[in-house]
Amino acid sequence: MTSQTIVLVEDNPDDEALTLRAFKKSDIRNEVVVLRDGAEALAYLFPSNGDTVPHPALILLDLNLPKVGGLEVLRRMRADERTQMIPVVVLTSSKLDEDILDSYRNGANAYVRKPVSYSDFAEAVRTLGVFWLLLNEPVPSPAPESD
Amino acid sequence: MTQLAGPADGLFAALLEAAPDAMVCIAADGRVALVNAQAERLFGYQREELIGQPVEILVPDAARAVHPGHRAGYVADPRHRPMGASRPLAGRRRDASTFPAEISLSAIDTGEGILVAAAIRDVTVQLRVRDLERSSQSLESFIYSVSHDLRAPLRALSGYSGALLEDYGGILGEEGRGYAERIVAASEQMTQLIDYLLQLSRLSRAELHLQPVDLGGEAARIAEELQHREPARHVRFAIEKPVQVLADRRLIRTVLQNLLDNAWKFTSGRDDASIEFGTAPSEDAAVCCYVRDNGAGFDPAYAGKLFQPFQRLHAAHDFPGTGTGTGLASVRQIVERHGGRVWAEGAVGAGATFYFTLDGKESA
Fold first, then answer.
1. Which residue from B28, B105, B110, B108 is spatially nearest to B72, judged by alpha carbons?
2. What are B100's strand-pairing partners?
3. In terms of domains, do B241 and B349 share one?
4. Does A96 touch chain B (CB under 8 A)?
5. What is the distance between the alpha carbons of residues B158 and B181, in angstroms, rounded to a whole number?
6. Which of A21, A25, A114 sits opposite B155 (nearest CB)?
7. Residue B167's closest chain A neighbor by CA?
8. Which end of chain A is more exposed for a tag (fewer CB within 10 A), N or C?
9. Residue A116 forms contact with B (CB below 8 Å)
10. B303 falls within a domain
11. Do B156 and A94 touch (CB under 8 A)?
12. Chain A closest CA to B318's CA: distance in Å?
């Protein structure tokens, strides 16, 4: 039930627009759901109204987020078997060893530091999109359910 | 009781003198029975002035009133323990000045009554070191968060001026594109400066992992990489091997990398470029190394500025790829962390030689 949706968890509107623009420029036309803090991300991933848990193709997760931090979101995702295998790429400004280690320890699939340079940033987003949406083999969908 | 302090207790007195801490022994009546030389030095009294006095003369005024009560409490339950575990302690010198102290207490049964032995340590230096560590940690985390927070707006500057160029370059016209390009370039330069700031603050605190390193071997590897990057250039390398030193491998490699990068860059105008790595005799250091080139050199009048951050003696357009002017500042920082020093000799058009010394030489 993997969808082709990309989830971008990002609180900085500048970075959000730059990321969306880079996707567009790279002809990555997948639906992008933008969530602006960790609490929004958790509410999206674990709907309280009984909706099925979404299974996006890729989550781009910032670490430094309002309300609930990125690492906590990652931890909660990895602790729940419904979201355990969703590819999560940490996309952040930090290059602190602790942040990198904590991300991998908590089950991040990759860690990318947002480049400052315009062209490097666009290239990083394009590469991520191409790798995770085209090259990488997604988690196989479970056997079709009775519905 | 005070007679216990007499010369008959030779062994006990000898042990007391041998203790590294100031020792003050107090009889059951609260009077000083015995002290060692360290206690005399610490408190500024002669021992004759202390023996027989109430121990409270060594207690700061503020705590003096409550001290006899604490003392009686200890004698009632005399276990070996640190004193005042929960509150900071202080001692009072003869001149009424005080110092922060760590005190541990133990009871000695002399057969003629209990002696309470107090070992007293002046912890002024330890406290100061702890404060310094704290403030340097908070400085580091400040620098980290500043550099982190500065990156986000820079990304926007670079990103949106780049987007302007890409999407509206045609409308902007040549002049307008030039302006936008300047914004992109300036934000990239600022990024490098911020990264350097971060690196410098880390360098100044990073722990050194000293191990034997062959600087000649490292230099040869770097030379190979440089040649590989620009195969069209012909540079004659002369590298002395091995040069065994004790150093932090990662950091000392940065030193060589910076110096050899510079030599490579500033010989780019010559067909007969040559770069040399070797050692020179040194009077004051275990080892003195140099990197010499026959490139553009520098005006010796500015030799002192070479190692300051953000200084460049060559205009960027003369030597494309010229950095932010932080390479040599890092070199100095690293060499000084290793207990060495750096200096440079050169003249305009006559090449440059960069020297650095290191403290520890690993005998081959």
1. B28
2. B90
3. yes
4. yes
5. 9
6. A114
7. A25
8. C
9. yes
10. yes
11. no
12. 24
